[in-house]
Structures are given as structure tokens and as C-alpha cells.
Design brief:
de novo design (two linked rop proteins)
């Protein structure tokens, strides 16, 4: 299936918004975490990786070449997967309520799958 240039632009804009919403949702979770011990370490790592997903996707959209896009989208894949890891640690460690984590885990999983697929289809 071939997409038109307009469809690609619309997808990119929608996905920019989606990754930003993910970063903001993680920020909200971070703000609700206790500010002590393991929460500080895990929370900081999660916040860094989730915000990196959004910022690096934006950078990928501005790439000047396929190689640059591949490089940036690879960072997005890594950071989305890292975000998933930290969310799973919070869940499996019973550090935050599951009902707050499950939607973020689902979103991180979907974002990871989408950008992984995009990276595979570059060349």
C-alpha cells in the first residue's frame, strides 16, 4: 500500500501529538510519585526516556536525509522501549497503582511497534 505525501504528513503530525501526549502523561505520573529512594531513580529515568521519545520523533520529522531519519527514529525506538521497561518495573515492583500504569504500558508498546515498523521500512 502506497501512501500519498499528504497522508504521510497527516500521520507525522498526528504521531507528533501522540508522542507529546505520552510524554505529558508520564510527566503527570512522575509528579504523582513519592520523591524518595527508588522512585527518584526510576522516575527520572522514565521521564527522560518518555520525553526523548517525543523530542526525537520531532527531530526525525525534520531529517534532511534517509540516513538522518533512520538515526533519529532508531533513538525513538530505543527510548520508547526504555520507557516501557521503566513502566514495567514500576508495575512489577508494585510501586505505583496498576490502573495508572497499564494505559501507559499499552501506549509505550504501541509507539514502540509503530516506530520499529517505520524503521524497518526505510530502506
Amino acid at each position: 500500500m502506497s501512501y500519498t505525501q499528504q497522508e504521510k504528513i497527516e500521520f507525522a503530525e498526528a504521531f507528533k501529538l501522540r508522542t507529546k501526549k505520552f510524554a505529558l502523561a508520564v510527566l503527570k505520573l512522575y509528579q504523582a510519585m513519592p520523591k524518595r529512594g527508588e522512585y527518584l531513580i526510576i522516575g527520572n529515568q522514565l521521564l527522560k526516556s518518555a520525553t526523548s521519545v517525543a523530542s526525537n520523533y520531532r527531530a526525525a520529522c525534520r531529517a534532511r536525509s534517509k540516513a538522518e531519519f533512520f538515526s533519529k527514529i532508531s533513538i525513538v525506538v530505543e527510548e520508547a522501549d526504555e520507557s516501557l521497561f521503566w513502566l514495567e518495573v514500576l508495575l512489577e515492583g508494585n510501586l505505583m497503582p496498576a490502573d495508572e500504569l497499564i494505559p501507559l504500558i499499552k501506549e509505550s508498546t504501541e509507539i514502540t511497534a509503530i516506530v520499529s515498523s517505520a524503521r524497518k521500512n526505510i530502506y
